[in-house]
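Q: I'm writing up a methods section and want to include an example of the input and output format. Could you take the sequence below and give the corresponding predicted structure tokens, formatted cleanly so I can copy it straight into the document?
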Amino acid sequence: MTRSAMIVVGMAAMLAACGVPPMVSDTGYLGTWSRGNERSVSIVAITRVEDRWLFRWTKRSYDGKFSILCDWHGHCEEKLNGRLVATYAIATRYDDTTGMLSTDTVEDRQVPEKRTFRYTDVMEVKDAGQTLWNYTVERDGQHFQGSERPQRSFAKVADGIAEPPRAP
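A: Here is the clean output for your methods example:
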């Protein structure tokens, strides 16, 4: 079994253990998405509470030295060897005109030097709801279009999400 397949199977097992059925169907943006390599796994969970879309990102290295952990309010901390190296503020918005879900991110990097980055990503669900594409359309005032956009894809691992946000 490839490392990517093990990640998907492991994620589905983790979600099942948390009481989330590992169903995978076309639910649009709703659900849990994953991507990884031999060093780390990145997980995106997307849900909707009333008229608000919520986005939570988690990234962890397999050796436990690196992590990015976010809450449902878009507050994130990136740590390396237990040391805070960056914080993120992620705002999620849905465009009724285009039907696209976007995130606006402010990254406050602490090391190697203090710097602030701002970027906007647009998401698109493809492959009958099995793949979530994420395209960076703006980074620090620089606009990207078409194939110039930095992009990444996530495979859907469950229709549900672990640890859903509490209703207001």
